[in-house]
Amino acid sequence: MTRIFPLITLICLVFSSYSQQVTITGSAIGAEGKTIRIIAWGDLITFTEERVAEAEIDTMGNFSMTFDLPSTTFIAVAIDLHRLELLMQPGQTYKMKLAPINYTDNLEVNPFILSQNLKIELINPDKNELNILINGYNNKYNQFLLDHFNALYLERKKNYLDTFRIQVNSGYTGIDQPYFQDFIRYKTAGLEQIAHAKNQYDLARSYFIDQPILYNNVEYMQFFNNFFTKYLKATSNILRKIDLIPIIKGAAPYPNLMKTLAADSVLRNEDLRELVLLKGLYEYFYANPELQDPIIAILKTISQESPWEGNRLVAADMVAKVTKLRRGTPAPEFSLMGRKKDQFHSLKDFRGKPVVINFWTTFCQGCLAEMELQVPLYEKYKEQVEFISICADRYWIKMNYFALTKPEYAWTLLHYSDDTDLLVDYEVRTYPLYVVIDREGNIFQAPAPHPSEGLKQVILELIH
User: Fold this and answer.
1) pLDDT tens per residue, range 299-342
2) Which residue, 47, 96, 199, 374, has fewest beta-carbon neighbours within 10 Å?
């Protein structure tokens, strides 16, 4: 048996018309009765998550699932908030054993702070299995960087890099794994950046110009993200001298932007130019609030009209990402347990009435202070507005006992019911979090101010 440790937290899955099945069987002792999920990312710029498959772990701790996979990709295996990552290839069968952990030892439920990394063993893998190859290369890479970082970064000794490249090439001759060869190539390219072995244009000529875009290769996209970060604003010697804001706000912005970016010889390939434009627009969106509406319009145009499927996917993910929880978009649905175990409430049950939701825990002092201030708001507006408090304590009974001591919290109390996806959907990064939803079930404001910060004004704006 060979132990495989988590490799990387990013994954890219570009769907195509041709897919092959992947079968996973294994055991996860201690997670009996829980759900094991396979998660992918739509692209490696926005990191939009997509659930590929899931299965229940039986009473013996065993699980099995089969799903379609169109290309070699990193997947995340998740149980509750715990994850591991590894590469999977279409048409393969994987047998694995997850190392036991205490799945209930998680006092604070926050999906953005994963409490533990899962570990797995792949049972009887081939010696040239892709995870083994990449694990071996990563060990060599990390040791080389540890030993020679100063020589590369400060002293710029390029001969060290040449020696490493020769060693790697000789160590992996005869390996027929295109994904692995591309992985090595673009990870080693990162060393060239560190050592300043080539200028910007020569790096682009070696790795981007007239080269295919490898949307689903994690090291290609890592190198792409590093190389083109702030490229439109600061890195490009040509484009940083051009004010792109009037073009973004102007008529026919997409073709005019593509025409303007063509002045940079690094971006002479149109598919690469468009992808760099997408990354730049994504950066502009968060840095320039006044550009958000026109940028959304441009992204929608690219998602529908781009000649390149990979770019259409990235653009569509960007639209979903930047419009998530935006005013007027549908609020994520839920069905959660209330004060009684046989009593469930869905968001749609409250359609026709504005809703104020707050996410809280019994051990969050700030949450409890805000809920005390919520009491008079509830008393004053309960006929016009529905108040819902969703408790993220691990156990329902703890919420219920607490509620019995607080009869003044007469509004709807719900328990998150192990639905960590709901916390992710509402981007619950800290507690408390308030969200206001309109009568049609659409987001009105997210996040909304706390009662101590002006929630009353938002309620008045919504009901009048």
Assistant:
1) 999 999 999 999 999 999 999 999 999 999 999 999 999 999 88
2) 199
Let me know how long the chain is.
464
- Domain ranges within the chain, ordered by starting residue: 2-125, 133-228, 233-323, 335-463
Residue-wise burial string across 97-110, b where 16 or more C-beta atoms lie within 10 A, e elsewhere: bbeebebeebeebb
Q: Which two tokens stand for residue 236?
A: 């490009």
Residue entry with tokens 């701790």:
61
DSSP 8-state assignment for residue 123: S
How would CATH label the architecture of 2-125? Sandwich (2.60)
Per-residue pLDDT tens digits for 98-138: 999 887 665 566 766 656 789 999 998 988 899 999 999 99
Report yes or no: 440 and 351 within 8 Å, Cβ to Cβ. Answer: yes
Beta bridge partners of residue 434, listed in sequence order: 358, 448
The span from the CA of 426 to the CA of 445, in Å, is 12
Sign of CA dihedral 134, 271, 224, 164: positive
70 touches 18 (CB < 8 A): yes
| pLDDT tens per residue across span 377-412 | 999 999 999 999 999 988 899 999 999 999 999 999
State how far the Cα of 339 lies from the Cα of 389, in Å rounded to an integer. Answer: 11
Exposed e or buried b per residue across 300-327, where buried means at least 16 C-beta atoms within 10 angstroms of its C-beta: bebbeebebebbbbbbbbbbebbbebee
Residue 202 has a CB neighbour count (10 Å cut-off) of 12
Contact 283, 264 (CB under 8 A): no
Q: What pLDDT digit, counting tens, does each position of 234-266 carry?
A: 999 999 999 999 999 999 999 999 999 999 999
- Residue 47 — left, alpha, or beta (φ > 0 → left; ψ -120 to 50 → alpha)? left
1: helix, coil or strand?
A: coil
pLDDT exceeds 50 at position 423: yes
Q: Dmax over Cα atoms in the chain, in whole Å?
A: 75
Question: pLDDT for 228-239, tens place per residue?
Answer: 999 999 999 999
Phi-psi region of 30 (alpha: psi -120 to 50; beta: other; left: phi over 0): left
Written as one string, the DSSP assignment of 52-111 is EEEEE--TTSEEEEEEEE-S-EEEEEEETTEEEEEEE-TT-EEEEEEPP--TT--SS--T
pLDDT of amino acid 9 = 34
Superfamily of the domain at 335-463: Glutaredoxin (3.40.30.10)
| Residue 377: count of CB within 10 angstroms of its CB | 17
Residue 2 confidence (pLDDT): 42
